[in-house]
Amino acid sequence: MNTLGSSSVRLLAFFAGLLAFFLVQAAPVAAQLKGTATYRERIALTPDAVFEAMLEDVSKADAPAVVVGFVRIDKPGQVPIRFEIPFDPARIDQSHSYSLRARIVVGQRLLFTTDQAYPVLTRGHGNEVEMMLRMVAASKPASKSTQAAPLGALPASFIGELPCADCLGIRYHVNLFPDRVFFLRTTYIGRGDNANFDDIGSWVLSRDRNTLILKGGREAPEMFAIKDRDTLRKLDVEGREIESLLNYDLHRTKNIESIEPRLAMRGMYRYFADAGLFTECLTRRKWPVAQEKDNAALESTYAKARLTTGEELLVNLEGQVAMRPKIEGQGAQPTLVVERFIGVWPGETCGARFSSAPLENTYWKLTRLGGKPVSVAAKQREPHFVLNNKTQRIAGSGGCNRFMGGYELQSGDRLTLGKLAMTFMACPEGMETERDFTAALEQVRSWKILGEHLELYEGSGAFLARFEARAMK
Q1: Which of 17, 165, 186, 201 is the most exposed place for a label (fewest CB within 10 A)?
Q2: Tens digits of residue pLDDT in 84-111
Q3: pLDDT score of 166
Q4: Please, what is the Cα angle at 158 between 157 and 159, to 5 degrees?
């Protein structure tokens, strides 16, 4: 049997190593897109949950997105889920648009998914992203009791004539839709033909499902107590009953009464195949754009600002949602009529849709303590706190000193905060507010969330403090 000499073996090893070196050098250099994914609901993922995220080329509006990178994580644990998607940078074209989407599934059932675009890599976007996933409703039909409470069957109209300080009355007309959209028209009776003021947006329920919150384009949300399926009662700006013998009730009509709202709007606009499509920011409703009035100015400005065919751009305008004949087929459909085009804002998006902020992992800024509003001096920290659901710890600031401690969430709306540990600095302003704030926190026994506002109460049910959800600092 022939054998190789030691010199031959060394020579073969040398060439093998040289070949491996060149293969490594020729291999594409992988890049990483990093991200975190979370959701607002206080729901733990089961061990059989799977997280998937996809990096896609979404440049072509008339073609399916092209997957550029993908990651799958079995047993991802609890949110926030951290992930990395490897991709070949040679496949990234700086003139293209790239977006990230993700989902969480258990078996064949989709639990959470992204409901907005998360642009990355090009057009000023980086390679790190934070994603908010939305819960997907169960596919099985809801029970009759669930459908009946607390608002009953939707869509529905609620109408009432409420008191007015300087007119004959204010007629409230609210249309509620099952996709969490509302249309609102307020009419100041006796002020002539131009006394209508319209608003559109999203509605949510308070955590106890007794309060309806409408968040539209107006500065403050409208709030109503749900007295029963057929009656809504107007509340004040802080969500409390209005102490009056006058009527503040809205009643369900037998049939829904349509509104064609006219107002200023923001939304994502695209023009493709000789048709414009507008996705309104507050409602996420998609409407075709009528070829009339100031539509020509919208189309012309969009054509100059877009970088690719069919690209979505943020625009703002004044318009009306009116019924117009369908482009294809018979009948009519809701259509956006552009009455005055205002501007286009490349690189911007609608942002997240309005929803109820979660109690935990939210930055809560103090806005009212007892019956008094809280003001903050120019150089003072704003009083706030955050409840960390992983550590079960509270941390925040009274305005001068930082504090921390433990907390316990019990069934329903029960909340107890432990003794707070604080730093010991002295500040020229805000010390009295800080003292009252930390004292109030130690008296907390229950809580209530109204959209993006949190209220804390003591054991007797007396109001302690009010907060507003803000971006984490």
Answers
A1: 165
A2: 988 888 888 888 888 888 999 887 688 8
A3: 83
A4: 115
Q: Which residue has the tokens 């072509």?
A: 60
Q: Output the six-digit token pair for 335.
A: 């259509």
> Quick one: which of 194, 196, 190 has its CA closest to 173?
196
Calpha distance 309→61 (Å, rounded): 7
| Rounded distance between C-alpha atoms, residue 359 and residue 369, angstroms | 18
Cα 87 from chain centre: 29
- Which residues, other chains included, contact 430 with Cβ-Cβ below 8 Å and sequence gap of 6+? 376, 377, 380, 383, 398, 399, 400
pTM exceeds 0.90: no
Q: Distance between CA 197 and CA 261 in Å, rounded?
A: 9
Question: What number is the average pLDDT over the span 106-128?
Answer: 84
Instruction: Give the helix/strand (H/E) hosting 305.
Output: helix 295-305
Q: What 8-state DSSP symbol labels residue 17? A: H
Measuring CA to CA, which residue among 338, 333, 344 is closest to residue 319?
Answer: 338
CA neighbor of 68 nearest in space, from 85, 52, 53, 56? 56
pLDDT of residue 16: 54
Report phi then psi at 302, rounded to 5.
-60, -45
- pLDDT score of 29 more than 50: no
Q: Place 7 in a pLDDT band, splitting at 50, 70 and 90.
A: low
Q: Cα separations (Å) of 405 from 246, 299, 411, 469? A: 46, 56, 20, 20
Where residue 397 falls among pLDDT bands split at 50, 70, 90? very high
